[in-house]
Design a protein that fits this description.
The chain is α+β, with helices and mostly antiparallel strands and 99 residues long. 35% of the residues lie in helices and 18% in strands. The chain has three helices and four strands. The model is unreliable at 91-99 (pLDDT under 50).
Length: 99
Amino acid sequence: MPLYTALIEEGNVLDQTKARIAEDITNIHTAVMKVPREFVRVIFLSYPLMQLWEMFQHHTGIATNHLAISLREIPATNAMEMGQIMRPVDHASSDTTTQ
């Protein structure tokens, strides 16, 4: 199942625009790959990337034309730490130890 992920600056793309982009991506993919439309998934992840950009520039002094930032988010259950599959974030902080 094809999954297209678009990383965008928070608040910069209207929902109607996202819908048109998703529709166009779906049309292109189904035309090229000859698969049903239901197979195609398009998601938009929004992050305050400008805040990250400004923070990097503040701390490093790197010029805009020499800086690239890429973010990739994965579900916690797709990662391991110290030999353990990570739990979803909503459960990670709810652990309490009773004695």
